[in-house]
Specification:
CATH topology of chain A: TIM Barrel
Shape of chain A: globular
Helix content of chain B: 25-40%
Strand order of the largest sheet of chain B: 2-1-3-4-12-11-10-7-8
Number of strands of chain A: 12
CATH superfamily of chain B: Class I glutamine amidotransferase (GATase) domain
Largest sheet of chain A: 8 strands, parallel, barrel
Number of domains of chain B: 1
Oligomer: heterodimer
Order of helices and strands of chain B: EHEHEHHEHEEEEEEEEH
Shape of chain B: globular
Radius of gyration of chain A: 16 Å
CATH topology of chain B: Rossmann fold
Number of helices of chain A: 11
Strand content of chain B: 25-35%
Mean pLDDT of chain B: 93
CATH architecture of chain A: Alpha-Beta Barrel
Number of domains of chain A: 1
Strand order of the largest sheet of chain A: 1-4-5-6-7-10-11-12
Order of helices and strands of chain A: EEEHEHHEHEHHEEEHEHEHEHH
Number of strands of chain B: 12
Largest interface: A-B, 35 and 36 residues
Chain lengths: 252, 212
């Protein structure tokens, strides 16, 4: 039986880790490769590396950063940010990514997911689904361009469609909660986990182990967090001890 | 002493940066090859695999290496097959009806069924049977939608469960084929790679100790 994954996220710009509140006011928090190695030593189950500025500024994620992280890492590495074409994805995979995450380009051209899955296998293709609660509070819409553009597209509909097209996993971020530390959007996690047949990674809003427990109980397969690990509030192993105390199995 | 060369079959369909890095961490020097003689004779050979069964067999056919791979296994030379690389050893797969696998081990690959998430992505158990010597109990990272449901005769095997039973890995002497990715399976996976290199007569570094 699969056990829930604990995934520290490295938000990277210009080869350095940054993490900001709702993608604005980015502040520096270190070197990606050494930080990834620390997370690995602490028992991380996977690392996600997101180039947070890539889509806005038209840049690709730093391939040298991916290669440096890969050399030290004996864990799965998922990379996102600025994937527009299958060749972009190939460059990231060649540099050392095991999976690539795509958001804006897939919304603009859903067939990209199929091309990626055909070329690399669906287990390599992660749909980065950024979702925001609609003003009516009744459902969620897809957000692209690093949280800047509300598409009007229904998040559940898009998740289902993206899986049919070839996405093998969903990295689900609540834009409302990202960087806020008020907990994951549990209703969103439950809705997408129920609708999608592929694994779902919860992202956006974790403030501590209780939030991770709630997300896992809502049905996600993995939980991603950035700030709580960067800021030293929690380590992966201390989080895992708390999860174990709540009856959730973890990889020791 | 220079690091021993560990050859990786250049199938062209797998992203193998993780495998190369893992071999380097274990103290080997990874070298990509599509050379028939090397694939036949190399002291240690890795058949990597990410992707689908049909393009995998096509790559092997285009390289013209099916016969030397079979000869290599017949001679029990040290070989590590990963993920799709393991599945290609079988006779066929539901993923590619009508396409013949290498047929080095008997049996067929089938799709996961039932109310589970597909692909299987994440950490799952590895439970070796008592005949295993390279494989130890632990957790490994898997990324697969298809699997061997039954262990082939003549091989020791480890099992796991994702809704239904699957074969996690098979081994016979210095031949090891894993459905999971040892190169992505943390210290446990690094130690498995080291044990395999040792079985090939290559002194592996103990690259990553399990933390106490």
């Amino acid at each position: 039986m699969l056990i829930p994954r604990i995934i520290p996220c490295l938000d990277v710009r210009d080869g350095r880790i940054v993490k900001g509140v709702q993608f604005a006011n980015l502040r520096d928090a270190g070197d990606p490769a050494s930080r990834a190695a620390i997370y690995q030593d602490h028992g991380a189950d996977e690392i996600v590396l997101l180039d947070v500025s890539a889509t806005l500024e038209g840049r690709q994620a730093a391939l040298r950063t991916i290669a440096a992280v890969r050399e030290a890492l004996s864990l799965p590495l998922t990379v996102g940010g600025g994937v527009r074409t299958a060749d972009d994805a190939a460059a990231m995979l060649d540099a050392g990514a095991d999976k690539v995450a795509v958001n804006t380009a897939a919304v603009n051209e859903p067939a990209l997911l199929t091309r990626l899955a055909d070329r690399f296998g669906c287990q390599c293709i992660v749909l980065a689904l950024d979702a925001a609660l609609r003003p009516t509070q009744s459902s969620w819409e897809v957000v692209t361009r690093s949280g800047k553009h509300r598409t009007g597209l229904d998040a559940i509909t898009w998740a289902t469609q993206a899986v049919a097209l070839g996405a093998g996993e969903i990295l689900l971020t609540s834009i409302d909660r990202d960087g806020v530390g008020s907990g994951y959007d549990i209703d969103l996690l439950r809705a997408i986990s129920t609708a999608a047949s592929v694994p779902v990674i919860a992202s956006g809003g974790a403030s501590g182990p209780d939030d991770l427990v709630a997300a896992i109980r809502a049905g996600v397969d993995a939980v991603l967090a950035a700030s709580i690990f960067h800021d030293g509030l929690w380590t992966v192993d201390s989080v895992k001890r708390q999860l174990a105390a709540s009856g959730i199995p973890t990889r020791q | 002493m220079p690091p021993a060369q560990v050859y990786i079959v250049r199938t062209g369909i797998a992203n193998i940066a993780s495998v190369l890095a893992a071999i380097r961490r274990a103290g080997g020097e990874p070298v990509m090859t599509a050379d028939r003689t090397v694939i036949d004779q190399a002291t240690a050979l890795v058949l990597p695999g990410v992707g689908a069964f049909s393009p995998g067999m096509r790559a092997i056919d285009e390289l013209g290496i099916a016969d030397v791979l079979k000869a290599r296994f017949a001679a029990a030379r040290p070989t590590l097959c990963i993920c799709l690389g393991m599945q290609l050893l079988f006779e066929s797969s539901q993923e590619a009806p009508g396409i013949r696998g290498l047929g080095i081990v008997p049996g067929t690959i089938s799709k996961f069924t039932g109310n589970i998430r597909i692909p299987q992505l994440g950490w799952n158990q590895v439970q070796p049977d008592p005949a295993c010597s390279l494989l130890k109990p632990g957790f490994a990272y898997y990324a697969n939608s298809y699997r061997a449901a039954q262990a082939p005769a003549g091989w020791a095997s480890a099992s796991s469960t994702h809704g239904e039973p699957l074969i996690a890995a098979i081994e016979r002497g210095p031949m090891l084929a894993c459905q999971f990715h040892p190169e992505l399976s943390g210290p446990w996976g690094a130690q498995l790679i080291s044990r395999w290199l040792t079985s090939a007569g290559i002194p592996a570094q103990r690259a990553e100790a399990i933390p106490c």
